[in-house]
Design brief:
The protein is 26% helix and 30% strand. It is α+β, with helices and mostly antiparallel strands. The strands form 2 sheets. The chain has an 8-stranded mixed β-sheet, sandwiched between helices. Strands 1-3-2 form a 3-stranded antiparallel β-sheet, with helices on one face.
Length: 222
């Protein structure tokens, strides 16, 4: 099930469908509709109820030399270099493993919605900065949707994937927004299990958004 985004109403349509469990990929928003499977669960963090525990705070402190930069949706060679390293290290067998710079440019720049690239830059002792991670993020009336994020795989000790989600929660609160949309979660999938750590988490159901009830403790890798 999918819809095409174009024209002046695209931002409103994207927001409406995201709030109903859809996910954006360039100018397409889609919702899995498999006859025999319903494992993909759209999930979102309830930002205004999220508590920054001591473990979350340790990750934020570990990255206190990083600043967030709100950039226009324009692809750069610096971003693509980080993405290429991330895909090779983390998703070499995935659907994006053969992504070229032209593919990346299309993903970032071909959009009719309200979106931006959040860059995460390390401030070095000499005053320079270097890019460590990025998130293509849509701005919605009720929250932020993390369309796609990636980071330098050589900086594993920083837990950059987790840090970027935590920072999105902080940013949403700064903007007075309530939710962080994380896309789809599949129970038992090692690559998606980290999303369940960000409680309270809601899943989209036939009865609307409901609190996600976990059967086991989620993994911590990201």
């Amino acid at each position: 099930m999918f819809s095409f985004l174009s024209g002046p109403t695209a931002p409103e349509l994207n927001a409406l469908l995201t709030q109903r469990g859809f996910r954006r990929s360039q100018n397409i928003v889609y919702l899995p509709a498999c006859d025999t499977c319903s494992s993909c669960k759209p999930v979102r963090v309830v930002a205004n109820e999220f508590e920054f525990s001591k473990s979350w705070q340790r990750i934020r402190n570990r990255n206190r030399d990083i600043r967030r930069v709100n950039a226009a949706p324009q692809a750069t060679s610096e971003q693509f270099s980080i993405l290429r390293a991330y895909l090779d290290a983390r998703h070499s067998d995935g659907g994006m493993s053969d992504m070229t710079v032209l593919d990346y440019t299309s993903m970032i720049e071909q959009t009719a919605v309200d979106t931006l690239v959040l860059e995460y830059r390390q401030i070095t002792p000499d005053g320079e900065d270097r890019l460590l991670g990025c998130s293509l993020t849509d701005r919605l009336p009720d929250g932020l949707s993390m369309v796609y994020s990636f980071f330098d795989p050589d900086e594993e000790a920083r837990s950059l994937g987790t840090y970027m989600i935590l920072d999105h929660i902080s940013y949403a609160l700064e903007l007075g927004l309530d939710h962080i949309y994380l896309g789809y979660w599949v129970d038992g999938s090692p690559k998606m299990d980290y999303k369940a750590r960000f409680q309270p988490l809601e899943e989209w159901t036939s009865n609307g958004w409901q609190t996600l009830k976990l059967k086991k403790q989620p993994l911590r890798r990201r």
